[in-house]
Design goal:
The structure is a single chain. The chain is of the alpha+beta class and 223 residues long. The chain has one domain: Nucleoside Triphosphate Pyrophosphohydrolase, CATH 3.90.79. Helix content is 14%, strand content 33%. It is built from three helices and eleven strands; from the N terminus they run ββββαβββαβββαβ. The strands form two sheets. Strands 1, 2, 3, 4, 5, 6 and 7 form a seven-stranded mixed β-sheet that branches. The longest helix is centred in the last third of the chain and has 14 residues. 35% of the residues are buried.
Length: 223
Amino acid sequence: MLEGLATPSAMEALMIGRGASGTMRRASVLALLWQDASCPTPASSTESTSGLEPPGGLRVVLIEKSAHLRNHAGQVAFPGGRIEPGESPVQAALREASEEVGIEASGVEVLGELPPASVMASGFDVHTIVAWWTRPVALRPVDVGEVAAVHQVAVAGLLDPANRATWVLGQTHSGPVFCVGDLFIWGLTGHLLSGLFELAGWTRPWDASRCLEIPPRFFRGRT
């Protein structure tokens, strides 16, 4: 399904920081995909640039961070967090996903890992673990101090060109954003989703010149 993960170097030009700095703290996030057979993907009016399409009913698990966090408050993100001493990025991503929203590691099949991205705003090199959810279970915020809500977002909605734009912050900061329902998915997660879709060959042409300001709900204090 994501054959490009066999050559993750293809992602490097798409990532914030273009690889780990080697001097910052390390974190890991889980990009967890699953197929909801009860929700087939509607036909699209535009093809991807590669002609490839995602499986019908494909969803991705995202969290909405607590509004009270010091960093990234209110942002939509993948489950994840700091890599503890002695942990691999995979172990950390699975542990954090369990602690945050109740994902069971035994029901997750790891597909691959993207090159780490250096996020200067928070001082972390972030590893992204891409995985398939083989045994979905009901999810909820377990660590309510970190997680305000859990969202299982349809990939078809993320790929819809009408839901894509460029977020802007002042005159110097911008990046890809996905606007699905009432969610505004920007920052590192927007970059990672955009890179994943490029890697999978699912990206459809969209208007990068359409610029949107970040709603206050998704931008609280430090980024």
